[in-house]
Amino acid sequence: RQYANRFGAHLVRLIEEPGTTAVKAAIVRDGTAMILGVAARDYRGLAATISGAFWHRRIEFRQAHLFSAMHHGLALDFFHLAPSPQPLAADLVASIEDAILRRLYIADADEASLPAVAGQAALHEWRPAQYCLRFETAAGGSGLIYAITYKMFRHLRANIFGLTAHTARGKAFVSVYHSLPNDLPLPEAQRILADRF
User: Fold this and answer.
1) What's the rounded mean pLDDT across residues 60-79?
2) φ and ψ at 139, to 5 degrees?
3) Cys staple from 79: which of 18, 61, 174, 190, with CB 3.0 to 4.6 Å?
4) Nearest to 67 by CA among 86, 98, 42
5) pTM over 0.70
6) Which string of b and e fits 110-135 if b means at least 16 CB within 10 Å?
């Protein structure tokens, strides 16, 4: 909540100006921790675009919290960046905003260069017509989130409206909340999950 206030005015602008596609990304500092926040219009594949931008810039994050206001088509996402001996690139925020506007890293051709991931995946109905994909692995970071969200976008045609990711006891845990297209029943989605993940 304390960070959301910083992006509130931009979200209101997106509601009041339906034609604007402006994106607001910013670094928020909390003591020694650095968090990159993003407020933007939501679209299917946005989570993969943002995490793909991090992965291509070789920037790791320890936690991710993604929220979507589906009725307004807005997204408010936060990425807790992992400590690094190198300072953040001066153009990081601009490159994230550019990736969102251009919908980068979600093309068919991007699948060939996805980071490899290995772990346990499960998909279940969370609420009526809403689903949760849970993934557990010994490897975390932005590459994991990118691979998962890309595959969900490409193969499940999922519309992600919430995501949490964190590490504990040497393992990474990811929960992705999403909807599925009407023509993709849960058993078929679970078969695709077993085949593609």
Assistant:
1) 90
2) -115, 130
3) 61
4) 42
5) yes
6) beeebeebebebebeeeeeeebebeb
The sign of the CA dihedral 5, 89, 41, 140 is negative
H helices of 105-185, in order, are 142-151
Pick the closest to residue 88 from 63, 61, 50 (CA basis).
Answer: 61
User: How confident is the model over 20-33, as a mean pLDDT?
Assistant: 89
Amino acid at 168: A
Q: Please, are residues 85 and 107 in contact by the beta-carbon 8 Å criterion?
A: no
Report the C-alpha gap between 98 and 105 in whole angstroms. Answer: 12
Reported as half-sphere exposure (CB side, CA atoms, 13 A), residue 54 has a value of 29
At residue 164, what are phi and psi to the nearest 5 degrees?
A: -130, 140
Taking each helix axis from N to C end, the angle separating 92-102 and 46-56, rounded to the nearest 10 degrees, works out to: 140
Is the pLDDT assigned to residue 4 strictly greater than 80? Answer: no
